[in-house]
Amino acid sequence: MFKKILIANRGEIACRIIKTARxxxxxxxxxxxxxxxxxxxxxxxxxxxxLGPPPVSESYLVAEKIIEAAQxxxxxxxxxxxxxxxxxxxxxxxxxxxxxxxxxxxxxxxRVMGDKIESKKFARDAKVNTVPGHLSTIADxxxxxxxxxxxxxxxMIKASAGGGGKGMRIAHNDDDVALGFDSARNEARSSFGDxxxxxxxxxxxxxxxxxxxxxxxxxxIIHLGERECSIQRRNQKIIEEAPSPFVxxxxxxxxxxxxxxxxxxxxxESAGTVEFIVDKNKNFFFLEMNTRIQVEHPVTELxxxxxxxxxxxxxxxxxxxxxxxxxxxxNGWAI
Length: 335
Prior knowledge:
CATH class of the largest domain: Alpha Beta
Distance between the termini: 33 Å
Number of domains: 3
CATH topology of the largest domain: D-amino Acid Aminotransferase, Chain A, domain 1
Oligomer: single chain
Number of strands: 15
Radius of gyration: 20 Å
Helix content: 25-40%
CATH superfamily of the largest domain: ATP-grasp fold, B domain
Strand content: 15-25%
């Protein structure tokens, strides 16, 4: 087990990781910008390293500074939390090159699942349910309209590198596609530096339900049930609850099995989330995979009694999962 880890984040998630590390007897190193010198995570950690000025582009997003801080402080591993560098394959790769463990999944899994077009192709090839659509590059508006007609209205235009509800447009007819295609591309370009978009069938009256998974480096993968996050504003989740009032035991089992199939296909280890869009008839389709711990992870911890951060650390240290699927019980309800 690690003796010392660095937490490449701030705020609530940094404090959350420090809490578990302390219970495990692991020393912690916080990093901070000049603006966060008096932040709680700096106070709670055993050591703290200044990264630089307040802008995140000069502090928390500078991988070289974080790796240097880990080396100078003797950290054996880095937990990225969520946001910032948590889904940056290059960061995980750079840590590995320096002999520092990344408390998260393997580089290949991060890369494949980080691209919405490639991840959907990968899911389709793994025989996971996917929303009907066109997953290749779309040249222009005319081609977009043709594809939308082939898929069948209504459709969703989505940015491949998207997240946080950006680069998404619903189209009910040709005129909507003409307007939405260019605006989605422009928004994607300005937000992510990548203007690729794809088109898929829009699910009417959808629910957004995600499955929490957990894997180790020895091929063991389990799921910890679902979280429902259908109540959203501007495609941003507002309320998360576990378990979902919409999901029965049969559906939970089926969704969990599909999530595990996908995770196994990318040799997934650590905590991750497979998100599905679900129609009113309980048909579910792969949406995306988040290769990190999520903001809403505590609702799963509350109904399962499992510390996900602890499991991530143990997996990164090479331990086998001590849990089997039959050990996972849903107790109560959390929001």
